[in-house]
Amino acid sequence: MLKRLLITLALLSPVTLQAADLRIVATTNSMGALASAVGGERIALTVLAPPDRDAHFLQAKPSMMRDLRRADLVVSVGAQLEAGWLPVAVKRSANRDIQPGQPGHFEAAEHVDLLDVGETGAGHVHASGNPHFNLDPRAMRAVLPALAERLADIDPAGASAYRENAATAITRIENRMPQWQARVEKAPGAVFHHADTRYLMDWLDLPTLGYLEPTPGVPPTARHIGGLADSLAGTDGVIIHAPYYSERGPAKLANQLDWPVEQLYTEPDAPTLDAWIELIDAWVAALARPST
């Protein structure tokens, strides 16, 4: 009962942790997980995007601008993920410290080796690179030291704490990576809604067997589902999609292939490293399901 209550509270946005010295605003729970892991008790954290919403399609709200106006640092995914709403909210916040190019403006994507740079047909349209790296432990690990240094620049008194916290978080992630990889060693692959799992599958060296979207942003059609079913007939796999997408397409494909269907969010239910690790646990378990 307590866990359910905590999850319910985590789905309410914005999420604010205890008050502290530095005020950090993260755009998603994944970015919040990095911030809380590095910042520890020296920060107060607010997250703008609820984990049960697609962060592409939020709207700049007065509450966002209020939180950004008071922020010392904004931690975003970058690579145009929040392009439809964050630039407007940051500009209207009238907070000079968090404008692009200022120390208070941190884009995690700048510290990640992005995939699909210049491509526009892999399930999303992001010419600057696929921004959905939050399910890739390699990428999240790479952001941690960069974020620690940025916090150290803003708050020199906490520099040693930030660097130590980042090192601890990196160790936690690295210790889990072999376990996750071993769990899916014989997994056959999966069909997804679109390419927000691109980094996850690249890291696990698993095949993406198809996308439910015929083209980026276009809902599944009966013809497309039929074509996927024909091409995958006689094979094994799993269909995984976020709960905020229609279940009709996945259900139809699953019925034709006799495959299991899993519903998983791509964001942790809380802005903590523990919650992010639990999210990767869930994705790994779903991918391993047909092979167990």
UniProtKB/TrEMBL annotation:
Lineage: Bacteria, Pseudomonadati, Pseudomonadota, Gammaproteobacteria, Chromatiales
Keyword terms: Signal
Descriptive protein name: Metal ABC transporter substrate-binding protein
Cleavable signal peptide: 1-19
SUPFAM superfamilies cross-referenced by the UniProt entry: Helical backbone' metal receptor
Source organism: Guyparkeria halophila
InterPro entries from the UniProt entry: Bact_metal-bind_prot9, ZnuA-like
